[in-house]
Design brief:
The chain is mainly β. It has two domains: 163 residues, Thrombin, subunit H; 203 residues, Lipocalin (Beta Barrel). Helices cover 3% and strands 34% of the residues. The strands form eight sheets. A four-stranded antiparallel β-sheet has the order 5-6-8-9, with no helix packed on it. β11 and β12 form a beta hairpin. It is globular and about 60 Å long.
């Protein structure tokens, strides 16, 4: 994110891909720089200092999209990812918690300075944390420990509750009261709306049967290794829209019907309450990893299916109005300007390398209203 004089940058790491023996020392941070000189004006870390020692706090990357800046409050809003590792006392705490028959009312294994899986407001001038809300609980994961049965790996559960995009800012009326909200969707498939003044929860799509359990919960859609909601939601102030990648191919119940798909799709929620309004499945049965765009009553989203379809949907109903097969996987989003939409295709890197359904491409497309 760039303003007239400053650049705001979140940091992430490829450490999540290293071996069990090498993992991990990286700590996510957020930085403000002078746009002209590149001088770092302030940096704030999301985790306590590990002093370069493995087996302590690591992770909490800030990735996925640009932050949101609230000039009136002098805040910048960010969201963070999961832990890569945690200290022994936290791991031991989780082992004890896993063996309990009655869950505690709060997650005893989340320490106050652990800002993983969090939505955070920072002071624009100093970087000081003004408020935070930790929304993922204990969530330690890296690729080498995707199989948590390995005795060298930290205990589960590995919820995949990191935020893959920064919060959006929107203003709406909740029970007749004007509310300025910061809204974000997690890879877990849950959406959260917080008060921009203090971080208080205004609404969410989650309904826990008991704390720390996703049983009997209501998500925007299923979570997964790469989502859930990922890379960026969108809003027109009336509704909040998100992709649901459904990378793990779970059963995804489409609202307001009772139809079920294992494909990815797109979801709309009421901005006042988080109530699910509609869900539309990817007709090509692909996953829907790319961010969504909304403009002029139309929601735009792409599919990872090998033929690369892009879809335009009615923002009120989710009905598909238009589609086009580009010939290669769509993993990114669309830009809208002056009556035209622009997007590229092709994704055969990172997670695309291990998925035979993802295809490469290097074309840019533009479609304009005649």
């Amino acid at each position: 994110m760039v303003d007239v004089r400053h650049v705001y940058v979140g940091t992430s790491s490829n450490e999540e891909t290293v071996s069990i023996e090498q993992c991990c020392i990286f700590r996510g941070s957020f930085v403000k720089l002078n746009a002209r000189t590149g001088k770092i004006l302030w940096r704030i870390y999301m985790l306590p200092d590990n002093f370069g020692h493995r087996g302590e706090y690591a992770g909490a990357a800030i990735w996925g999209s640009s932050p949101s800046i609230d000039i009136y409050r002098n805040h910048v809003y960010i969201a963070t990812g999961n832990l890569y590792s945690a200290p022994k006392n936290v791991r031991d705490c989780q082992e004890r918690q896993n063996n309990r028959t009655n869950m505690p009312t709060t997650d005893e294994c989340v320490e106050p300075e652990n800002h993983s899986d969090s939505i955070i407001a920072l002071d624009l001038d100093t970087g000081k944390i003004k408020w935070f809300n930790q929304l993922g609980g204990y969530d330690v994961w890296f690729f080498a420990c995707n199989n948590v049965s390995n005795p060298k790996c930290p205990p589960g559960p590995n919820l995949g509750a990191d935020f893959a995009a920064a919060p959006m800012m929107l203003t709406t009326y909740v029970d007749g009261i004007k509310r300025d909200l910061a809204v974000a969707v997690q890879k877990s498939g849950f959406a959260w709306a917080l008060d921009r003044d203090n971080g208080k929860l205004i609404w969410s799509t989650e309904r826990y049967l008991q704390c720390l359990s996703y049983e009997n919960s209501l998500e925007a859609g299923p979570g997964g290794l790469t989502g859930g909601g990922t890379w960026g939601a969108a809003t027109d102030k009336k509704r909040v829209y998100t992709n649901i990648a459904n990378s793990d191919r779970k059963n995804f119940t489409l609202q307001p019907s009772i139809k079920v798909t294992t494909a990815g799709g797109w979801v709309a929620m009421d901005s006042k309450s988080g109530r699910l309004l509609w869900s539309t499945a990817d007709p090509s049965n692909g996953t829907a990893n790319g961010p969504v765009t909304v403009a002029n009553g139309v929601v735009i989203g792409g599919s990872t299916f090998r033929q690369g379809p892009m879809y335009a949907m009615n923002a009120m109903t989710g009905e598909i109005l238009w589609s086009y097969k580009t010939g290669a996987t769509i993993y990114g989003g669309a830009s809208v300007s002056n009556g035209c939409i622009y997007f590229g295709h092709g994704y055969k890197v990172s997670v695309g390398l291990s998925d035979p359904g993802f295809t490469a491409g290097n074309s840019l497309f533009a479609f304009c209203v005649a």
